[in-house]
Amino acid sequence: MGTREEGRVTALERAIAERTPLPGLATTSPLHGLRRRSVGSWDVVAQSVAAVAPAGVVLVSPASLGQTAGSFAFLDLAVTVVIIVLLAATISVFARRMASTGSLYTFVSRGLGPTLGIIAGTALALGYAAIAISTLVGASRRTVGLIGRATGDAPPTWILPVVIAVFAILIGSVIVCGLRPSTRIMLVIEIAAVATILALSIVVFISTGWNVGALVPDVSEPFSVSTVLSGVGIALIAFVGFESGTALGPESKRPLATIPRALMWTVIAVGVVYLVGAAAQISGDAAIEGSGAEGELPLARLVESAGFAGAAPLIDLIIALSFLACSLATTTALVRLCFALSREGLLPDVFGRTSMRFGTPAPGAVILTTGVAAVPLVWIVVSGSADGIRSFTTPSAIVGYVGAYVLVCIATPVFLVKIGEFTWRAALPAILAGTALGAALVHDVATKMTTDATGAVIGLAIAIVTATICLVRVRRRPELRAHLGLYDSPVASDSIGGVPAAPKK
């Protein structure tokens, strides 16, 4: 045994000493230009958590879930957490085997082929853009509200467009300057925001005597699958974007281990925060008559009712920062996705160019950040206010994200069969998550079509037109098919042997 171990050590030492280049390794990655292996696990977690915006969601969304699901709100949220954990396990099947800035687009392309891959990529891009726009506007409006509180006067109407433009410039600049400063900013913001949310939730629990009886569904209420699907549909919007950390795969250290671990950490941590925040909201509503029945700051009113006056400005600030970090994270993911699509020939070359100084897709970042800001600015010019924009961005986000999630769930067992590694243990999470997400998506779209179909129709139309353009481009240039679904691969400089020496003339 000792001789065998000594032989291994000797072989390793000899390989290090000789540094013989390995044949067959390319000198550059298909995703060259990015700073490969430059960020760690916490950076990926920060990206994923910020894209979810847990603090903003906890402070704004529980009232909507309660109004839809009634006493089943907490149960619906718990069911959604389970679905998202299954989805994270599904995405990890791919993330353990390949790293790409294309995220779910690359995974679906590898599992189901280029046509469905393009549809998934288009849907994901729609989701990223919709959330980036919505949270940019949300952060700006909260900031304007804080300015009004500080001055004691209603801010002039031109303040909101100015704040949107300033935030967009900030987001674009941070993305251009590199992942590390971007993710560190997001990490600090979200840690502070989540810590504050948990503290406020504990304050509410203490004030209500830790009343958790309200979390149990009231069996006297009418129960239906439709009600559960409606609740899950609302709760899903709280989790979309968690997969965006996969877009940092080529730039992260040990991506095949880091990305799956970061995804699971994110959904579990965020799920716990949501369950605690929602439990505090439901418990407080049951104990304090009238609290959280209307308006956008139910938890703030509950905290003030518990004796902490003036909590609203603090919570407005937390929401503004959380939404700003979310807009930064989703725009970052959108830039990385478009980078992959450009390298594969589906988008103009400008989106695939990188800055030599920063190692980022700087031209694409500038263009896409400008586009994200332009949508609300034009909306405000045309309509005179930012009211109503979420009626378009929220349905677009649901259609885009959940559509991509369903496709990656379908792609997973097919991919496992293709590579000869299919097992029911690996495929079952995809089957369960895909079935649940598909049912929620169909129910949500059907509901929107019978109530306010405008937002859902516009989102679907944008996705269909974009996907059609890409598919036509592939049909006209069949050679592009061989490039679709590119992912990062080891290069000569990654090996002990390094890059082969140039032949002597």
TrEMBL record:
<feature type="transmembrane region" description="Helical">
    <location>
        <begin position="191"/>
        <end position="210"/>
    </location>
</feature>
<dbReference type="InterPro" id="IPR004841">
    <property type="entry name" value="AA-permease/SLC12A_dom"/>
</dbReference>
<feature type="transmembrane region" description="Helical">
    <location>
        <begin position="398"/>
        <end position="417"/>
    </location>
</feature>
<protein>
    <submittedName>
        <fullName>APC family permease</fullName>
    </submittedName>
</protein>
<dbReference type="GO" id="GO:0016020">
    <property type="term" value="C:membrane"/>
</dbReference>
<feature type="domain" description="Amino acid permease/ SLC12A">
    <location>
        <begin position="44"/>
        <end position="424"/>
    </location>
</feature>
<feature type="transmembrane region" description="Helical">
    <location>
        <begin position="44"/>
        <end position="65"/>
    </location>
</feature>
<dbReference type="InterPro" id="IPR050367">
    <property type="entry name" value="APC_superfamily"/>
</dbReference>
<feature type="transmembrane region" description="Helical">
    <location>
        <begin position="317"/>
        <end position="341"/>
    </location>
</feature>
<keyword id="KW-0472">Membrane</keyword>
<dbReference type="Pfam" id="PF00324">
    <property type="entry name" value="AA_permease"/>
</dbReference>
<feature type="transmembrane region" description="Helical">
    <location>
        <begin position="158"/>
        <end position="179"/>
    </location>
</feature>
<feature type="transmembrane region" description="Helical">
    <location>
        <begin position="116"/>
        <end position="138"/>
    </location>
</feature>
<feature type="transmembrane region" description="Helical">
    <location>
        <begin position="454"/>
        <end position="474"/>
    </location>
</feature>
<keyword id="KW-1133">Transmembrane helix</keyword>
<feature type="transmembrane region" description="Helical">
    <location>
        <begin position="71"/>
        <end position="95"/>
    </location>
</feature>
<feature type="transmembrane region" description="Helical">
    <location>
        <begin position="222"/>
        <end position="242"/>
    </location>
</feature>
<dbReference type="GO" id="GO:0055085">
    <property type="term" value="P:transmembrane transport"/>
</dbReference>
<keyword id="KW-0812">Transmembrane</keyword>
<feature type="transmembrane region" description="Helical">
    <location>
        <begin position="362"/>
        <end position="386"/>
    </location>
</feature>
<feature type="transmembrane region" description="Helical">
    <location>
        <begin position="424"/>
        <end position="442"/>
    </location>
</feature>
<feature type="transmembrane region" description="Helical">
    <location>
        <begin position="262"/>
        <end position="282"/>
    </location>
</feature>
